[in-house]
Write the structure tokens for this entry.
Amino acid sequence: MIEILISASFWAAVLRIASPLIFATMGELICERAGVLNLGIEGIMVIGAFAGWMAVYLGLPLWGGVAVAFCAGALFGLLHGVLVVPFGLSQHVVGLGVTMLATATAYFAYRLALPQVTTPPKIVPFQSWEVPVLSDIPLLGPALFAQTPLTYAAFACAGLVAFVLYRTPLGLAVRAAGENPAALEAQGVSVTGVRVGAVMVGSGLMAVGGSFLTLSAFSSFFFEMVNGRGWICIALVVFGAWRPGKAVLGALLFAGFDALQIRLQQTPIGAVVPYQLFLMLPYVLSILALVAMSRRAQVPAALMVPYAKGER
Amino acid sequence: MSPTKTEAEIVLRLDQITKRFGKLVANDAISLTLHRGEVLALLGENGAGKTTLMNILFGHYLADAGSVTAFGQPLPAGQPKAALAAGIGMVHQHFTLADQLTVLENITLGTESLWSFGRGRATALAKVQALSRDFGLAVDPHARIADLSVGERQRVEILKALYREARILILDEPTAVLTPQEAEALFQTLRLATARGLSVIFISHKLHEVMGHSDTCVVLRHGCVVGQVATRDTDRHALAAMMVGAEMAEATVAPGVPGPVRLSLRNVRAGPLREVTLDLRGGTITGLAGVSGNGQAALADLIGGGLLPEAGVMLVDGTALPKWSPRAAIAAGVGRIPEDRHKTGTVADFTLAENAVLETYATRFARAGFVDWAAVRRHTETLIAGYDVRCPGPEARIRLLSGGNMQKLILGRVMEEAPGILIANQPVRGLDVGAIAYVHGRLVAARDAGAAVLLISEDLDEVMGLSDVIHVISEGRLSPAFARGALTQGELGLWMAGHGFGQGLTDAA
């Protein structure tokens, strides 16, 4: 156990596993701070994983793939946003619908593009990039500073989201849209505009999180590869009490349990205990952490409350 | 309040503003002018058209006719943004603040371009602090709104307007939710504001405020201006006469014939209530006056079964009931007209018929465990006809109804059960003049039929006009009973402010 915890490869794995979660959690957090629950997250991550990978397979550079993934996500975000904000439909139903639609679209497009193949073709993914000087620090260096660019981008993204939310007028407007949209409207700002915009940007980030899987973690696209990560991110937003910093901590914690269980399976205990129990570990521990952490969380007051101008 | 104010520059001019809602003329060719540095009180009963007029001025409603001129420039109709830009700031009765954001964030919200980088917090903070110092609006800029008192929230709303360089402040019933001390601080702020050349319009139906703190009074009745006078040239009686008009003043309610005590409380403590002693007699309207939030809700809950007495004795028709609950209250003949007809009075998405039997579906309208919908429908049709509920029919969802019609249905629901005890909590809040007269008439009819009516209202005129007996509630304490006409409005006002309670408790016992 101790051996695992002091190995650089363990910590490197934690950051790697956390990266897609951080992107998608930030995306969901932006949506929810603006007052919109986005259950489309799971499907949007699938479409991001597929679109980014397909774009690179068709010849775009890797960062081009990331951009394509963002746009594909934003498009589904626009769909979700238009249905739930101006039309005020149920956010749960629309979100689940978007998840199904986006997942099916990705699988369908995959079959259209590659009708014959049995094993999906590979692309050349992001390579790890060692930060000069910093990566030479013993233990810490290889653990933290020998990651792929998208991992660094995930942490930068979390910082940016926190900065925008708390330090800019735009972020203030987003938070007000999720707290008391009438207050925002009274100051002459369009609630619909802010909410739909937030959902689009947030969905874009979810898709980038999905594309991390195909462009950085693995080198090709599989069905079921997102595997419930989207739902985890929704829990992480609650765990983080709708705050970017705490949400990143939550993502790291979950990733830590995940990396730990893989390694525990290879220890002598793993030979005795059924491996399914290890697979459960991150989820069980996450639920426990969620219970402990989210009791006093401040839910955005207008979360899931549709806003209609002029109604009290 | 210097005599020169009427000669000062005119900052705002409303010209022949007319607004109709269906058949109701809310504003009928209203004209008024506001001068620089002037405090103008807009006075009138509930439903006289005050709020409508201010909403037109601020661009929330579109007037059917007339124009608004601010600082010599015509104001485009129906645009709150234009009103803000012209320097008009409005403090609504219901605050528009985001609870989880800080004071500073609420104030700066929407004042900067969304795309600017950084928020210039230091500058904003300095400006807010300067404003709160200059206008006596003490509030911590970093506090969350959720942690503030109602009075502090109102200060934030005023700061919001001042931060946007408002030159004209409009306050819609600013003191309705304030304690007397907070109200005094508010008027201090308004004096500081006018001293700096701002102009103020405040809407009120409290005569003592208007007399004490305005330069000019404009009185509205039934949507028309019935008088514009300099405050120093008039007095309370003249204003009251203008406000209610001759025909309303004559319609005073004949005293009731007191019957037996239906419900009595002896030194009851419950929630915020402290040692409350109260008798509700049949054939009597007992008025409860007081500033909102002083325990009225708890008292209504207590009698309605929603709250249990923690100490003291509660007798219904002379007997102590072993179990007190809303069900027991209904069974004991307590009828309830709730304070919030949307939240607790009705289920918005239920039909009129379903709403009409919310209290009786399991008793009167049950047949072998099933609801007898045919009977419910007949019953609802009777209510609709008998209580003049304007609606598409018993199957319509109740959320489609106006406040007045919703209230009439609730009234019918209660009255048809011939309650022995009737709690009317703010029964006419937000209703128009016609509906108010109707509801009042029904309350008096219930009294004459022998019911013990408890009328809870923040409107002193309403309480004084209808009640046979008046109690005042303040900070959970109840004053002794005063017979109708025993105290003047001013004396009741003192009780509302909490004076006299020291000896009052012994008097009542």
